[in-house]
Design goal:
Blueprint: H1 8-11, H2 15-21, H3 24-36, H4 40-54, H5 63-66, H6 70-76, H7 82-96, H8 100-108, H9 112-117, H10 124-137, H11 142-149, H12 154-160, H13 166-179, H14 184-192, H15 195-203, H16 208-224, H17 227-235, H18 238-245, H19 251-268, H20 277-284, H21 287-294, H22 300-313
């Protein structure tokens, strides 16, 4: 029965359609038996079946029907076989990517602790898939992010920022970026773990795609940061990077960077001195020129926002 799920035509079925064609209780019994077996081939078959179930069309919204399979996935994560671990982590990654309800089901199943442990696994394929699952889960609500942070994933994520595997490095940056969308305490967790400083160091020699991914971390962090956290980001060198992004032919990147710079400039007003010290910093690293260039952009938002920023924060040429 579970063999049928691995065929490509079956993966095009919806979850309800598939369960209409099989006996779900019998399937659950078979999967439990395969999971509990001492034979690696049976464990692998169970993991592959669950992975394919998580790949079925329209699984989103079917949490109540699927949640019964999560304890089996939790037990498979305790196996030592590489293939079993890779398939199970991939299944959890796919499931947690579906939506908030699916992320919550994964958290309630108690598998996150093991996923965090697997970030330190010696096999790159295992920790890469575990990392992607963690990254997808921390893309959820603040409480879901905190549920993972309470398990101390940051040391493992930090280690994977230096992976020679481009996909793993990208997933590690994604995980940090998702956490940076959280609340002030979650942002502080990133700062306290020295991750932002490490990312700035990586940025110095990174290729364009990695720099852009790290730029998104900075943007997300600035959006929810306290004034002290914004000041820290400025002090460790985020301004030159944000200013450089303004010259790119990529609207989303330019918009995020300009928004971040506006927040930073607004934070600089708290110093209650003229000129705004952050305005001076931005000017010194070529940011004012790039912002000025955007004033003639054909995009209405970019042209109006850049003009507003120049008029409000850089009108200090008559000041001593």
């Amino acid at each position: 029965m579970s063999n049928n799920i691995s065929s490509q035509p079956e993966l095009k079925l919806g979850f309800d359609e598939y369960l209409h064609n099989v006996n779900p209780e019998l399937l659950l019994t078979i999967l439990k038996a395969e999971c509990n077996a001492n034979r690696v081939d049976e464990n692998r078959h169970a993991a592959q079946t669950l992975l394919n179930l998580c790949s079925l069309k329209t699984l989103t919204g079917k949490v109540a029907q699927f949640v019964k399979y999560l304890p089996i996935m939790g037990r498979l994560l305790d196996k030592s076989d590489i293939d079993v671990l890779v398939q199970t982590c991939t299944a959890l990654s796919k499931l947690s990517h579906r939506g908030t309800a699916q992320k919550q089901a994964v958290i309630r199943a108690g598998v996150c602790r093991r996923l965090v442990e697997l970030l330190m696994h010696p096999e790159p394929k295992v920790k890469g898939k575990a990392l992607l699952a963690v990254a997808n889960i921390v893309a959820g609500t603040e409480s879901q992010v905190q549920s993972v942070l309470d398990l101390n994933p940051l040391p493992g994520i930090t280690q994977l920022l230096y992976s020679s595997d481009a996909k793993i490095k990208k997933s590690a940056i994604l995980a940090v970026s998702n956490i940076a969308c959280g609340n002030e305490d979650q942002i502080q967790a990133i700062i306290s773990a020295n991750i932002l400083q490490r990312l700035m160091n990586i940025m110095e020699t990174a290729g364009f795609e990695t720099r852009k991914d790290i730029g998104l971390v900075i943007n997300n962090l600035i959006m929810g940061a306290t004034p002290m956290q914004v000041h820290y980001a400025v002090m460790i060198g985020c301004l030159p990077e944000l200013c450089d992004f303004l010259a790119l032919d990529d609207f989303d990147v330019v918009k995020r960077s300009l928004t971040s710079l506006e927040i930073i400039l607004k934070t600089g007003e708290r110093f209650q001195v003229q000129p705004n010290p952050y305005a001076i910093n931005i000017d010194e690293c070529g940011g004012l020129q790039n912002i000025g260039n955007l004033q003639s952009s054909e995009n209405f938002w970019l042209s109006t926002t850049s003009t507003k920023i120049v008029d409000k924060y850089f009108d200090y040429e008559d000041l001593d």
